[in-house]
Specification:
Layout (H helix, E strand, L loop, with lengths): L14 H19 L14 H7 L3 E10 L1 H6 L9 H10 L4 E13 L3 E5 H4 L4 E5 L5 E10 L4 E6 L21 E6 L7 E12 L9 E4 L11 E3 L5 E8 L10 E5 H14 L5 E2 L2 E6 L2 E7 L4 H5 L6 E5 L2 E2 L3 H9 L6 E8 L2 E8 L1 E2 L7
């Protein structure tokens, strides 16, 4: 329904009002005609050229996975489990396995058929079918996946080179920049939506590496794993999470920054898994600092002389101002390599070299 329009009879203006209005109009006209600052980034007249450029590399992903009766029972609301309805559900489905279908999105980063998507789209799939924009459907295999960052890499086989899109640098993106999101919302096939970056560095509490870009472009179920482009057609994020009381878009979506995704993808392609650095510490955030609360006595930090009460200032010269920042900085270092940890102890700044260990069982610390 269109908005109501209200029409009113024009009022008689005094000469003073008329003169003021003319001055205001001249000011507004001058403002409109004034040249934009050299660094201003204007909105494009049309996104059609950008869409034509990038959409062929965006794919739809259909998955099938086997769900056991136990998995289905866990979906029952707790208040129903001991009711007659719950007991009947257990009797019928408790020992049964069923095939469940799902869908998501992805994008091709290499003409040979390398595709990036979310781990929650393909991580438990028995069968993966990728649909291209030209109508072809190709089976895919998982090359590697990482649960902590929700990234997965899959591959399809094709007799010809496939269209692909390049990475952009999410670190250069700013709040207010235009973005284009692409994917498979509600299984409708290749779709795009436009918006801006609303915020950066969002922590949703889903894991130790949360560092999402917040977007206002409509993102819905099925967009998971889809690319978020800047106006140059470069991928600066991967759609992963929406916040919604209804399950549909309310204009708050979150994407994993390309700076993190590209590193994870490179490791998955080279090794098939992720090895993260580990110091063996637990920390507190207090007095605007990150303080060592305790140490694993067999961990790298304890063996190198770090102590409880030390305030971590920097890792390899890069300032640390949060526990998440510390975890990410250490995790980015390959196990076996050394880091320089700058700490403040008893009013004095010290630099301690620590040989980073391998993160055990992907636990924080």
């Amino acid at each position: 329904m269109s908005a109501d329009r209200t029409f009113r009879q024009p009022a008689l203006w005094s000469w003073h009002q008329f003169s003021s209005a003319m001055v205001l109009g001249a000011v507004l006209l001058a403002s409109a005609c004034a040249p934009e600052p050299a660094n201003a980034r204007a909105a494009p007249d049309s996104l059609a050229p950008l869409v034509k450029k990038v959409l062929p590399a965006v794919v739809n992903i259909a998955v099938t996975e086997t769900v056991s009766g136990g998995d289905m029972l866990s979906e029952l609301p707790p208040e129903l489990r001991d009711t007659p309805l719950g007991r009947e559900f257990k009797r019928r489905y408790g020992n049964r396995s069923e095939q469940v279908a799902g869908a998501g999105s992805g994008f091709i980063i290499d003409p040979s058929g390398i595709i990036v998507t979310n781990n929650h789209v393909v991580g438990h799939a028995d069968k993966i079918i990728v649909s291209l924009t030209d109508g072809r459907q190709l089976p895919a295999t998982v090359l590697g996946h990482d649960e902590l960052t929700d990234i997965a890499v899959i591959k399809v086989l094709s007799n010809e080179a496939l269209p692909s899109v390049p990475w952009g640098d999410s670190r250069k993106a700013e709040v207010g920049d235009w973005i284009l999101a692409a994917g498979n919302p509600f299984g409708l096939g290749g779709s795009v939506s436009v918006g801006i970056i609303s915020a950066e560095g969002r922590d949703l509490g889903s894991g130790p590496f949360d560092n999402f870009l917040q977007l206002d472009a409509p993102i819905n179920p099925g967009n998971s794993g889809g690319p978020v482009f800047n106006m140059d057609g470069q991928v600066i994020g991967v759609s992963s999470v929406i916040v919604s009381p209804t399950g549909a878009s309310v204009g708050i979506g979150f994407a994993i920054p390309s700076e993190a995704v590209s590193r994870i993808v490179a490791q998955l392609l080279s090794k098939g898994s992720i090895e993260r650095g580990w110091l063996g510490v637990s920390v507190d955030e207090r007095n605007n600092g990150v303080t060592i609360a305790s140490l694993d006595r067999n961990g790298p930090a304890a063996k190198s002389g770090l102590r409880p009460g030390d305030v971590v200032l920097a890792i390899n010269g890069e300032k640390i101002d949060s526990s998440r920042g510390l975890i990410r900085a250490v995790a980015a270092v390959a196990p076996g390599n050394s880091v320089r940890v700058t700490v403040r102890r008893n009013g004095h700044d010290l630099e301690i070299a620590i040989s980073v260990g391998r993160r055990p069982n992907e636990q924080a610390g």
